[in-house]
Design goal:
The structure holds three protein chains of three kinds.
Chain A: H1 2-29, H2 34-39, H3 45-55, H4 61-73, H5 87-122, H6 127-141, H7 144-158, H8 171-200, H9 203-210, H10 215-253, H11 258-268, H12 271-299
Helix pairs in contact in A: 1-4, 1-12, 5-6, 5-8, 5-10, 6-8, 7-8, 7-10, 8-10, 9-10, 10-11, 10-12, 11-12
Chain B: H1 3-15, H2 17-34, H3 36-39, H4 43-46, H5 72-108, H6 110-124, H7 128-139, H8 143-170, H9 173-180, H10 185-222, H11 233-239, H12 249-276
Helix pairs in contact in B: 1-12, 2-5, 2-12, 5-6, 5-8, 5-10, 5-12, 6-8, 7-8, 8-10, 9-10, 10-11, 10-12, 11-12
Chain C: E1 3-15, E2 20-32, E3 36-40, H1 47-55, E4 63-72, E5 75-76, H2 82-88, E6 93-96, H3 100-103, H4 110-121, H5 127-140, H6 157-169, E7 175-179, H7 187-204, E8 207-212, H8 215-221, E9 224-229, E10 232-238, H9 239-243, H10 250-257, H11 297-301, E11 307-310, E12 313-315
Parallel strand pairs in C: 3-8, 3-9, 6-7, 7-8
Antiparallel strand pairs in C: 1-2, 1-4, 4-5, 9-10, 10-12, 11-12
Helix pairs in contact in C: 4-5, 4-6, 5-6, 6-7
The chains are: A mainly alpha, B mainly alpha, C alpha/beta.
């Protein structure tokens, strides 16, 4: 297990090198000279040349990339081109907010979504099933940012229960979590329902009944444990989607995480911020996927880690 | 898939009320949006008239007007053209490239498989929205650039689905049989494998389509999708964000449009899954 | 002899999207104490449905008992409470399912799965004793007790079937319903497993219904035989009565004609013409009429009852005393 974990962590390195290089490449061929954009159109040729040299833009892309990565390994993600602050330092302030949001949203999606799916499956083709399925379908069809705006409109502006923006108190986290969790919650409940229904019809569940188990024991001990395997594999994907969604949802709530910060950076082409962000996010997503795989191996004896 | 099989799928699909509802709504939406230039003048989309600003839905303007007095109905219809057809084109590109990549990887295996799948891993190491955002940031705003950005985010998912399906098929007897008859690789892939992986692929394409329409709206909302003043459902919401508190309909209506479109697609997708694989039906 | 299980005139339907399938049509069968009864019939004849009905484990919302009764030792299975049924399942009546590959829970160790039966039905037994019982039954079926902490995927098909058998026998049930327990196995292992089941059944003094489509297995391992066709028993008797081929149902005759016989001069086997009646669209009269060599007008109009042709030998045919043309 330890060996596997280490191997997987090492495998993250080429992935991160790959994605950052790709981003570097794409950003470097993009139109518009950052030096001109930073200094304004009135700047002299000499000023621009000096700025380009300062940013390393006069070097070939590959050299720029290697230089950046060499620094990044040492913890130097560079400075924002337009705002001047240290990227890593800014991350260290903002990342906890985004992570809290993402982790809590995932927990809500698991804690509510899975039992809802179980209930729907157990009451298959009855009212509770229809209601749960209906809401899950609605939730999965609504854009995150729009849900966010609607919650804001209703819970903050109309009812005045919760703050509409910021992250001043724990209350401010509620609406962002509610909007972020929607998609994954819907996904979890639908998937749990589908897989549970699938497993309930399997031969070994019939065997469990034939042994004289109570129906509740049959469902929880025999069917649910088996169907959860399938759900667990999806948690990594769901988490990745939530991190992606937080980029958008944070903008709605002016939430001080990396999302709102990144979307501004993307618009202004602040490359150090964008690339730094990609590195951080891909590490988080990679580690989540690893944790999911390890969890999967713990729950399912058939999975052999190699 | 043979003709008879297609018919059977259609018969099963037709029995599913939600799926049929989704199909009807989708066809209706597409027809209305596609035929818009024939009956709705584009000038209505952009004509500003401050006196008419913030008109409530009903009356002269079915969905009311926005802060510039532009007709919301016209903006939504023309916005739908962009949202729906960008979604279709994106998924079309992702489908073709995904089938090519996944099919090759799954069929040949070995080094080819490793290279293609590692590339997909790299693309999937960050959330799709983030990848699309970055590409748009690099290429700049515009319809074609957005389509590229969105396709890149979809390709690895489609490729993986195809690869997994092809891998399970590869070892099966009828493929061996075709090989024994001296059938070439390309022919086996096109004639024997692709038709058999169509089921899972159709499902993955349908769910990808819904997701893509949501992504288009998200990019539009962030202001890095299609450049204004061209309407698109996401940008319409974002334009009206400031007025939302007093004129909530300006946000609710376009949002509902997105939901209805995605919901219909999901219904169709679920219906197709049940129709293609009756064993899985519940 | 005392009756243990009494199934009377049982009708069971399966409702699917396309049609209603009549799986059992007036199925009548008694199982006596200590008896090993072979239940023979082709795929879809209703053998498995009969077993599942007895345990009331028909797939929910799909399978439904329309009429008829099942009695086990004075307990009316159709009217028993859920609780009563749970007491019976696994303790009094055990079932060995057809496919050992899928009948075991993939994420529980085999030891846990065998022990679960004891945990459920012998809550007063000390845990240590339960463990010894599990070890004992594993030894009996020929699997090292040391392997009880392994998972099903670590066993071969034949071993999984032994585990399924161990699970069914660990509580020493009175009635064992074995649904084609050896179909999925190699011929060499088949005989071993059947010998084993027979020995275990005898040592526990249970009754066993052995579902199979193999007449050879029946002749070898059973005391009596019941032949099922289109959802009802069409012949029941002792092995001697049925296999002597003096009086048989025409379908049973047909079955025998499908078995190669070294002493016969026939050059080819004689298959039964046609296919089994469509269970979603059954004929009015005798279900076998279409394929029967003895068929007359009466057969197409009214369905015959089971008639006792010799003591303990029943045949469901209007012309039970006739012989079909010899081959």
């Amino acid at each position: 297990m330890l060996k596997y974990t280490l191997k997987r962590l090492l495998l993250l390195i080429p992935v991160i090198i790959g994605i950052t290089f790709l981003v570097f490449l794409v950003l470097s061929v993009s139109p518009g000279d950052p030096a001109v954009m930073m200094l304004g159109v009135e700047a002299t040729e000499a000023d621009i040349a000096a700025k380009r040299a300062e940013l390393g833009l006069d070097q070939p892309v590959l050299i720029q990339y290697v230089q950046y990565m060499l620094k990044a390994v040492r913890g130097d993600f560079g400075k924002s081109w337009y705002q001047g602050f240290d990227v890593l330092n800014e991350f260290s302030h903002r990342l906890p907010y985004t992570l809290t949001l993402a982790v809590l949203s995932t927990i809500v999606a698991v804690v509510i979504g899975i039992p809802a799916g179980v209930y729907a499956a157990v009451r298959h083709n009855h009212m509770p099933d229809y209601i749960i399925t209906f809401f899950a379908l609605l939730l999965s069809a609504a854009p995150t940012f729009w849900l966010g705006m609607m919650y804001q409109l209703f819970f903050s502006l109309k009812l005045g229960w919760l703050p509409a923006s910021g992250a001043g108190s724990w209350k401010a986290f509620i609406l962002p979590i509610m909007s972020l969790t929607g998609g994954m919650l819907a996904g979890n409940s639908r998937m749990t329902r589908t897989w549970l229904l699938d497993v309930i019809r399997s031969d070994y569940v019939r065997t469990a009944r034939a042994k004289g188990n109570k129906e509740s024991v049959v469902i929880v001990k025999h069917a649910l444990r088996n169907s959860l395997l399938q759900v667990i594999t999806q948690i990594g994907v769901g988490f990745s989607n939530i991190v992606g969604g937080s980029l958008v949802a944070e903008t709605v709530y002016a939430f001080p995480g990396i999302g709102s910060f990144l979307s501004a950076a993307v618009k202004s082409k602040d490359i150090p911020i964008v690339v730094g962000c990609i590195i951080v996010v891909s590490v988080i997503v990679g580690i989540t996927n690893l944790v999911v795989d390890l969890l999967y191996a713990v729950v399912d004896p058939r999975v052999q880690l190699e | 898939m043979k003709k008879g099989q297609m018919e059977l799928v259609w018969i099963r699909f037709r029995k599913n009320k939600l799926a049929m509802l989704g199909l009807i709504v989708m066809v209706l939406l597409m027809t209305v949006c596609l035929s818009a230039p024939l009956w709705l003048d584009y000038s209505k989309v952009t004509t500003q008239s401050i006196i008419n600003a913030y008109q409530a839905p009903g009356g002269g303007h079915i969905f009311g007007t926005d802060q510039f007095g532009r007709d919301l109905f016209a903006r939504i219809i023309y916005g739908g053209r962009i949202s729906l057809f960008s979604g279709l084109i994106t998924i079309g590109i992702a489908f073709v490239v995904g089938v090519a990549m996944g099919g090759t990887a799954g069929y040949f295996g070995g080094v080819v498989d490793t290279v293609i799948m590692r590339f997909c891993d790299i693309l999937m190491s960050v959330p799709g929205v983030l990848l699309s955002m970055t590409i748009v940031a690099a290429l700049g705003q515009g319809l074609v650039k957005m389509l590229i950005a969105l396709s890149v985010a979809q390709i690895p998912r489609q490729a993986r689905t195809v690869r997994a399906a092809v891998m399970t098929l590869r070892g099966q007897e009828f493929i061996e049989a075709a090989k024994c008859c001296g059938t070439g690789n390309t022919r086996i892939l096109l004639k024997h494998i692709i038709p058999n992986v169509l089921g899972p692929l159709v499902i993955s394409v349908m769910s990808g389509l819904g997701g893509t329409i949501l992504s288009i709206a998200s990019l539009g909302f962030l202001g890095i999708g299609i450049a204004p003043p061209t309407p698109e459902w996401g940008t319409i919401i974002s334009e009206n964000q400031a007025s939302l508190m007093y004129y909530p309909f300006l946000g609710i209506i376009p949002g509902l449009c997105i939901m209805i479109a995605v919901l219909s697609l999901n219904f169709i997708g679920d219906g197709l899954r049940d129709a293609l694989d009756p064993k899985q039906k519940n | 002899m005392e009756k243990l299980l009494e199934i009377k005139n049982l009708y069971v339907n399966y409702k699917t999207d396309e049609a209603v399938v009549h799986a059992l049509n007036g199925f009548t069968l008694d199982v006596y104490k200590g008896e090993t009864l072979g239940l023979v019939g082709e795929t879809g004849a209703g053998k498995t449905t009969m077993c599942l009905s007895t345990l009331r484990l028909l797939p929910e919302d799909i399978g439904e008992v329309v009429s008829g009764s099942i009695k086990y030792n004075d307990i009316d299975i159709m009217k028993a409470s859920k609780n009563q049924m749970r007491q019976l399942r696994g303790a009094e009546i055990s079932m060995i399912f057809q496919d050992p590959m899928t009948s075991l829970n993939p994420i529980m160790t085999v030891g846990e799965q065998i022990r679960e039966v004891l945990d459920l039905h012998y809550p007063d037994m000390p845990p240590k004793k339960r463990d010894t019982r599990v070890d004992d039954i594993m030894k009996l079926v020929g699997i090292l007790p040391e392997r009880k902490d392994q998972y099903p995927h670590q066993f071969s098909g034949g071993m999984k079937q032994r585990i399924v058998i161990a699970m069914a026998l660990v509580s020493e049930p009175k009635l064992l319903l074995a649904d084609e327990p050896t179909t999925a196995l190699d011929v060499t292992i088949q005989a071993q497993i059947l010998e084993l089941m027979k020995a275990l059944k005898e040592s526990f003094n249970s009754s066993m219904v052995l579902v199979t489509h193999d007449l050879g297995i029946v002749a070898e391992f059973c005391d009596n035989v019941a032949v099922v066709y289109a959802g009802s028993v069409i012949e029941r008797g002792s092995i001697e009565q049925v296999f002597s081929r003096v009086k048989n149902h025409p379908y049973t005759d047909g079955l025998f004609n499908c078995i190669p016989d070294l002493t016969s001069e026939a050059k080819r086997l004689t298959p039964i013409p046609g296919y089994m009646a469509d269970a979603s669209n059954l004929p009015k009269g005798c279900k076998f009429a279409d394929r029967c060599v003895r068929c007359r007008e009466k057969c197409k109009e009214t369905e015959p009852e089971l008639q006792e042709v010799d003591k303990g030998h029943f045949i469901k045919c209007w012309y039970a005393d006739e012989r079909s043309g010899e081959t």
